[in-house]
């Protein structure tokens, strides 16, 4: 069936390249559609409020490893990563649908655990689970989540609104989820070698939680609203800071200066990264799965958020021709490149294809 | 991780039982939500129009066999089966999101073929593909589709509105998709035994198309609207006629009489069923995947549709205590039972968990 003499390797295109390729001929026809492929979530016209829709597919062996991921945490995370896309539009997530595929040999209690994590996330974030699908799978656990959210049209924040001079801001801290994953992978290997050795995770709660139980930043969306700040652009950090910044600058047709010394990194992340011989900054730039919000604001709004410890200004937007640059702590200037996960190259990670075109 | 001394076999519960079990504690909290788990599609309040949302997960080896399913057909079908749920609410499907998981060794051309079928379906039914997700899969091809549709609140047709005396109607004909699948499976086995033998599909175009390229019945929704008929209840036939009738009668708290002689079955379906030693009526009752619309109408509306050859009255609604019965051609009376696919028992098929509770 796949005989084709002009076979193209998907790995050669990369995920975004593939998506660009696939979506280039899509036309939007319905008056209900305001924004299709091209951002964190699609926007549909429900007249009074606009509808935000986002979907994620999570596959065992690709997005999660059941050897070290408790099912309840997995359920919680599956919802969070999807809500994060709605918040990144400056919207309020309201509903999810959840589709699950799993082996017919999975005990009911396992699915209950998974589900309980999902319902916990829903309860905490005031989300209704309104539908879904379940099926058996010959292929490991499959989770597909679709989130629906609402926002007033004027409040919706796209990736393409950054203006020259805007400040580049990020919530929380970065790199922790990636370093937490390295730690979990290491302890799994230790366990496989000698099952009598208990995992050595002590003192690393924070980075493990960043990996296993991320929290979508609804609080930041609320905070910005309370401060009277509408970001000029926004995206969630799922593939690594570098990749997300480049989404914003590319779609906004701008450049940026990013300051390494400003990138917020937790001490636990720094310490564990060094233990693995990794540069903490590289973990923040390319690690992914932090689910923080990256956004740009007008300089005039700076005074309103400068005292908030959970938001850090990490750089600023320049004109497009100035390019995208990282200024290192040593004062060196490097071109910023996206080296985030490529699901088709290293079998790890993925991102919704609301991406740059 | 799955250690549990009280392990329950999911096969024992069955798919619907499992879903009932999982969803029994779900509360709906948002004022945006009008209808959560429990029908063909969820209904959200978008103020002027109501939003209809439905989602399906299709897995290789469970829902489709790439040995005899052309990828373009598969893409087309993946969209159709999902739109069918929106039409079954008497709504107009408008957008879809599509998530795909596939091996990194899949050639690009294969994904293009799949996608081209999806886009063809979208184009034909005026659907915008507004988002999605792609990822690699170690587990065969994974397809998740979410459809969003719109309807005026007064037009939405639930499963629970059937009234005593209403006529039970179905569009098109039944059992063809199931018999078509049997034929494709047989020819696959023949091919595996001797690859030099060409598949013998001649003269069976109709049933093969019923399996590989179903069409969601938007035309029936339009027709009913034109006739000025609002069904009192409606569902699409994805799991077999018997199962769907019982969804309607259970949720409507009614019973029914179904007449075997009235069940519309194409001659090609009958012929091929007999070749396989199958009872064509059983194929219609339990085969599934026909994606026709099953609905109830007031007797007063009968005159308006009695001349339409694509809609057949197959029985009527009774009071609940009268039970659900099939009257055979020989005049025997059998209790109607759902023996549709159980994805967890036979590794085949699945249905959205907008199901009876």
Gist of the model:
The structure is a homodimer of 357-residue chains. By secondary structure, chain A is an alpha+beta fold.
Largest interface: A-B, 96 and 95 residues
Alpha-beta content class of chain A: alpha+beta
Order of helices and strands of chain A: HEEEHEHEEEHHHEHEHHEHEEEHE
Q: How do the strands line up in the largest sheet of chain A?
A: 8-10-7-11-9-12-13
Number of helices of chain A: 11
Q: Which fold does the CATH topology of the largest domain in chain A refer to?
A: Phosphoribosyl-aminoimidazole Synthetase, Chain A, domain 2
Number of strands of chain A: 14
Point out poorly predicted stretches of chain A.
1-7, 14-19, 30-44, 341-357
The average pLDDT of chain A is 82
Largest sheet of chain A: 7 strands, mixed
**CATH class categorisation of the largest domain in chain A:** Alpha Beta
């Amino acid at each position: 069936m796949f005989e084709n003499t002009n076979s193209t390797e998907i790995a050669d295109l990369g995920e975004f390249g593939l998506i660009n390729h696939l979506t280039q001929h899509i036309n939007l026809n319905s008056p209900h559609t305001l924004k299709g492929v091209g951002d964190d979530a699609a926007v549909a016209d429900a007249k009074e409020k606009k509808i935000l829709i986002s979907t994620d597919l999570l596959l065992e062996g690709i997005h999660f490893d059941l050897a070290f991921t408790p099912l309840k945490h997995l359920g919680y995370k599956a919802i969070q990563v999807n809500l994060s896309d709605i918040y990144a539009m400056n919207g309020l997530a309201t509903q999810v649908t959840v589709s699950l595929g799993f082996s017919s040999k999975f005990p009911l209690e396992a699915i209950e655990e998974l589900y309980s994590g999902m319902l916990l996330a829903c309860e905490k974030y005031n989300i209704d689970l309104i539908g879904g699908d379940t099926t058996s799978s010959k292929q490991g656990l499959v989770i597909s989540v679709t989130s629906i959210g609402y926002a007033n049209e004027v409040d919706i924040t796209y990736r393409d609104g950054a203006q020259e001079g805007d400040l580049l801001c990020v919530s929380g801290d970065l790199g922790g989820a990636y370093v937490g994953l390295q730690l979990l992978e290491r302890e799994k290997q230790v366990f496989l070698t000698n099952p009598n050795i208990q995992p050595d995770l002590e003192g690393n709660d924070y980075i493990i939680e960043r990996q296993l139980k991320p929290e979508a930043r609804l609080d930041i969306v609320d905070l910005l609203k309370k401060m009277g700040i509408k970001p000029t652009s926004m995206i969630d950090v799922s593939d690594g800071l570098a990749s997300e910044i480049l989404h914003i600058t590319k779609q906004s047709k701008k450049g940026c200066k990013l300051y390494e010394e400003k990138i917020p990194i937790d001490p636990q992340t720094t310490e564990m990264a060094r233990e693995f011989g990794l540069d903490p900054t590289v973990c923040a730039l390319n690690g992914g799965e932090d689910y923080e919000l990256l956004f740009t604001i007008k300089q005039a709004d700076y005074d309103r958020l400068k005292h908030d410890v959970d938001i850090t200004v990490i750089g600023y937007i320049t004109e497009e021709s100035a390019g995208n640059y990282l200024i290192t702590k040593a004062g060196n200037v490097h071109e910023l490149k996206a080296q985030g996960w490529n699901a088709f190259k290293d079998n790890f990670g993925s991102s919704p294809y609301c991406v740059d075109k």
